[in-house]
Amino acid sequence: MGCIKNAQDAANRARSATSAIVALGSPPPELTALVTETLNALAPLSKSNAAASCQDATSDPCAKAVDQIDEAASTLVEVLDGWAPYIQTN
Residue 42's closest CA among 82, 14, 12, 7? Predict the structure, then answer.
C-alpha cells in the first residue's frame, strides 16, 4: 500500500512542479534545454493515473501505474542531476 501512496504523491508533486516551472515563464537561453528536459521528465509522472488505477490495489492496472511511476521517477532523477551546476550549496 505504501508504494501506491508514494506513486500517487509523486504524480501530485509532479503536477505541482510542472505548474510552478511553467509559471516562471521563459527561462534564460542557457537553461531552455534543461527546463524542457525537466518538463518532459515530469510529464509521465504528472499524467499518471495511479490514483484512479489503484482503487483496487491488487489489480494489474494498479501495478502497471506504479511501475510507470517508478520508471518515470528514475528518468526524472537523471534529468535533475543536470541542475547540479546551477544549485548553490552552502
Answer: 14
Task: Name the pTM for this structure.
Answer: 0.83
Question: What is the DSSP secondary-structure string of the chain?
Answer: -HHHHHHHHHHHHHHHHHHHHHHT-SPPGGGHHHHHHHHHHHHHHHT--HHHHTTSTTSHHHHHHHHHHHHHHHHHHHHHHTTGGG----
**79 CB contacts (<8 Å, ≥6 apart)?**
34, 37, 38, 40, 41
CA–CA separation, 77 and 14 (whole Å): 12
What are 8-40's pLDDT values in tens digits?
A: 788 889 999 999 999 999 999 999 999 999 999
